Amino acid sequence: MVASLRLAVAGVGNNISALFQGAELYRRMSAQGIAESEFPGVKRPRIGGLGVSDLRFVAAFDPHPNKVGREFHQAVLAEPNNYPLLAGELPAVDVGVDPGLSEKDVDETSPAFRRVVQRLRESDAEVLLYSLPTGLQWAATAYARAALAAGVAFVNCTPELVARSPELLAAYEQAGVPLIGDDLASHLGTSVVHRALLGLLSQRGLTLTSSYQLNFGGNEDFRNLREQGASKRQSKLNALAQDGVDTGNVEVIPSAGFVAHLKDHKVAILNIEGQGWAGTPVSLDLKLQVQDSSNAAGVIIDLIRIAAASRRAGVGGFAAAAVRILKSPAGGHPSYSDEDIEASFRVLDTVSELAEATAGQ
Amino acid sequence: MVASLRLAVAGVGNNISALFQGAELYRRMSAQGIAESEFPGVKRPRIGGLGVSDLRFVAAFDPHPNKVGREFHQAVLAEPNNYPLLAGELPAVDVGVDPGLSEKDVDETSPAFRRVVQRLRESDAEVLLYSLPTGLQWAATAYARAALAAGVAFVNCTPELVARSPELLAAYEQAGVPLIGDDLASHLGTSVVHRALLGLLSQRGLTLTSSYQLNFGGNEDFRNLREQGASKRQSKLNALAQDGVDTGNVEVIPSAGFVAHLKDHKVAILNIEGQGWAGTPVSLDLKLQVQDSSNAAGVIIDLIRIAAASRRAGVGGFAAAAVRILKSPAGGHPSYSDEDIEASFRVLDTVSELAEATAGQ
Amino acid sequence: MVASLRLAVAGVGNNISALFQGAELYRRMSAQGIAESEFPGVKRPRIGGLGVSDLRFVAAFDPHPNKVGREFHQAVLAEPNNYPLLAGELPAVDVGVDPGLSEKDVDETSPAFRRVVQRLRESDAEVLLYSLPTGLQWAATAYARAALAAGVAFVNCTPELVARSPELLAAYEQAGVPLIGDDLASHLGTSVVHRALLGLLSQRGLTLTSSYQLNFGGNEDFRNLREQGASKRQSKLNALAQDGVDTGNVEVIPSAGFVAHLKDHKVAILNIEGQGWAGTPVSLDLKLQVQDSSNAAGVIIDLIRIAAASRRAGVGGFAAAAVRILKSPAGGHPSYSDEDIEASFRVLDTVSELAEATAGQ
Amino acid sequence: MVASLRLAVAGVGNNISALFQGAELYRRMSAQGIAESEFPGVKRPRIGGLGVSDLRFVAAFDPHPNKVGREFHQAVLAEPNNYPLLAGELPAVDVGVDPGLSEKDVDETSPAFRRVVQRLRESDAEVLLYSLPTGLQWAATAYARAALAAGVAFVNCTPELVARSPELLAAYEQAGVPLIGDDLASHLGTSVVHRALLGLLSQRGLTLTSSYQLNFGGNEDFRNLREQGASKRQSKLNALAQDGVDTGNVEVIPSAGFVAHLKDHKVAILNIEGQGWAGTPVSLDLKLQVQDSSNAAGVIIDLIRIAAASRRAGVGGFAAAAVRILKSPAGGHPSYSDEDIEASFRVLDTVSELAEATAGQ
């Protein structure tokens, strides 16, 4: 049996609550004799030998006053987190939340920075998962440097530039430490549904007339949304344009409103108007409802397992296995073929199997 | 320039109205200088050199009392047809609607049968398009035999067994006459959207919990729906099962109701419930609205061009080019690869180009 | 404190499961100190002094083989019933389900009929609630006669003719026994929403162009739907016409499909197209989802309390208090003013208060 | 026959385009022999004898550079206006658009102010309709003063404080000039639908759990929306609270997004979650689509006819007839009973009839 993945986290938000609670839930299903191939919402039961509940939280950094100093399993439920409590009592995790880095601690010689590196080392973490709120480029860079200094693999869930930074990527590669990023693609996001439907329209030979997409919800992402909306909107429109969609009459509103009572639920409204034979109209209206942070955690579970398995296999830098579940992978999507990706997964699995075989001798 | 496609039709319903009016509309667009690559709702502007308005209706068979004896361009607007009149006055088509075959005329020696064969010959038709109401196996077979006797290519839009009949297919192949069928796949049908979304769910690693699909509308298909619903339901569920969907909690209602005022519009309601990470719920609700007969005509235009171009190229039997736009192609879907299909289109185009080059000398 | 309502039921379907489980749930809320004014989904916490959990099931009749002979609390969960089990274990109700009457037992001298009368008497039932499947006029009449013979108040939930029968009503009035019916109006049914929106359109001065309403679900009502749909459709269209709606372009499909996995959930799809100023279009699309049998039980709880309180007050025949929650009340809706209805409720309350005061002396 | 209503407008936006084009369209219907009782989207064919096409635009003020100096019928189609051109060519209206007042012209002695008063007098306007963009309190007040100075009735479509200002109202009353405002209620707005559905829920005894309402569109109101959203949101929530709705879990987003290609169409998404019997869930999802400015014009046509008829009848100040179609009427809604409103309409009709009878002698 493989050893559990030793995970450190920077940011103890809803995504981490979802990751923690989900892993616990699957552990209980397993204890009830449910086969992991039957776990709902899991695409790959094993990556590099690691299952979805083989997870141990060994360090946590978050500057929020409601979280600092609390034990990890309490901090994941502290406001403004509002991911639901899924499964009765949570198991205690005897790891206190550390305030981590602030904007004045980015120098590698600062005491705070050195303390973070030390905690990563002492905790024997394999992976540092970065998921602080979007927009803190300084934090993303500083934690990535701290992880590198501690020899810990780094996973960047946010759009900040980390794995796409040639300098950082080169440093990780040289050190033989995995660096996975940037910006996770949701498990079932609005954009992937929107693109699938627009692609279908085009593939069948219908003509797009207009389309819109609105997203709203009740978590912190939507509270601060209206400011950050513009860049997210453009990046989503760019993605559509790359698919060959004429975005002239297409609108994307990443953050149409903050609806507090929705909590961590996200609702998306999608409309597509097109023309078929003889120019007659075709119209699609769709409402998509998801648990926003489950939508992230369902992908994070793969990213961290790829990172940990790569580290165990001694493979540094980016791993092709992560490409399909990142919005902006190191090197860009076109650098990786389907074969690259499959080969990357196979390497992780093979090394894990060899390690187990050796361990068993 | 290629000669127009000389088309005979068995059945003068909404589909034929849509086909006729659409071709006329595109002809007018062309006359206004709109490039055919800009035609809305057209996937392939040319097949074997034939454009979407290169169409001449040369014979028409339909036993409905409102249609028999009327000129073609009037019959397409006669009740119970209720496809909208799209584009002002329709051009006159000096072809009277013939009652065609009845159930007692299926013998090839009967006077009615011989008359139909003779009309096909005299009209110099290249293709006989069969689109009488669903369920008349005797009629589908009889018209297919009449077309074969007249050396005219046959296209079967309905689920009746024609191109899948080994005997009929062999006879067409031996005679070098094209036989295209069975059962057209809509341009953008409910099933193709349903399958795309279920496929996306599965590809992303979410778990399907339940799903339903309901269709309703106001044309003749929906009036007589409730009887024929059962077999159509099963065939749609089978198609989903072939995609690997566990159809235990999936329901398809092909004909949920006749709503007269919708006329030829079809509305479909789709729901998908699934589970993401930690079993948290994901839900999709979709409303799809289409002009039902445009949805058929947008595919018929390709089927008849494939049939005519194959006949001009001297290729008998089934043409791989038609596979993707048929629900039950001769030989079944798995018999044809993407390469087969592309090769089939290329043959039609090449022969047409050679013919033009020769003609130009 | 008033004594619990002693209830006999003819029919142990989903509605009775909902009624029984709801009463139990509210009892537990009460035990937890939740005030009855805070009970969700309850319009009138008290009628004639009776609360929503003051309910005792004392006799039950149902011919279904899965139910006959079983104890009441087990029978409510037996197939084809599929109302969810809401609240953990149900309290035992030591009442066996009796097969009751069959079509050959309608004569008052038949042994079965006499046995039913005797059971009603022995059980000391105050009310017989009739909710067998729709369409059994003989059963509705026979049970109404049996209740009358036993001096038990009768509530008819179905469209069968009982309280609207002048003979039956006169007999109940003469005997001083309450008779409440016919045909319960859902707590929040599709029709009431449809009528509210069409009424709003008209009141604001917009013009209705067309509208449709489709209902589907997974309980027995929807399984056998397509046969019974026609009369239900006409009765719903009539109700709209009475509101002054021009139903020329309005369609109602009471039973668009049986979707097994929806179980006791009902889904309704509503569309309204209209014209505002300058004839420009207005459109409303609505999806309504309800727990079908809760929708009935939320009204049944009022009907049976009205019946029991009337009987306790010595008032026979129909009670105006029930008018708003019946589709076809005795005498028809226009016979009762709002004042009549309020007065009727007040009588029940006053008598109950007097009775308590007297009992307290 | 009554003389046409002589109308001056401050603001030549989409609402005025809708008003102008609608009046013209109904005029053409009338010319085709369509009875005014059959006009689509018209609640009251006559108010004080005035029909919906008895409208003459005699003066227009708007500071927008695309409009100043152009003839009225051209200005209504100038950008950023994007109400559709409904009915072919518009009739010429030989009235040039005047820049009107700017923020420095609010003093009654300023030349601009005096010019506006003079234009109103010279044009012989009966009513000045104020519909400049929301938020210009100075402009609303200044135009109201100018109208009063010219003896012209004033109608305020915006939320600015005019008719609710005790000083202004007293001045109008004293002068015997009608003052109608403030803030028009849409013909069929999202709020009225939302309130109707929440009211229905409550009336039927179901419990509201949560609700949201989002509005989006492509006209200027939605472009500048996000700033003005907060006050509009609060006013809509207040309206719900006045209906007795517990707005704790209710969210209203007046301006969820600017979707340019929607132009003057508004889309509203509404969700209501509730609990029925036994706390089981009830859910309503609604999509409402309207032509935003028709939604205003359908009410403006009544407000200006009430104003003109009041002036003709010599009745100054506010008119009860306008109460139901204003969001914030002078004195507040509770000051007026249904009887007051009907009486107010009757006065206008009677005076008009008398005037005609006298004129006919």
Automatic annotation (TrEMBL), chains A, B, C, D:
Single annotated GO MF: inositol-3-phosphate synthase activity
Highest taxon of source: Bacteria
Annotated Pfam families: Inos-1-P_synth (PF01658), NAD_binding_5 (PF07994)
InterPro entries the UniProt entry points to: MIPS, Myo-inos-1-P_Synthase, Myo-inos-1-P_Synthase_GAPDH, NAD(P)-bd_dom_sf
Domain Myo-inositol-1-phosphate synthase GAPDH-like: 189-293
Biological processes per GO annotation: inositol biosynthetic process; phospholipid biosynthetic process
Family designation: Belongs to the myo-inositol 1-phosphate synthase family.
Protein name from the UniProt record: Myo-inositol-1-phosphate synthase
Lineage, broadest ranks: Bacteria, Bacillati, Actinomycetota, Actinomycetes, Pseudonocardiales
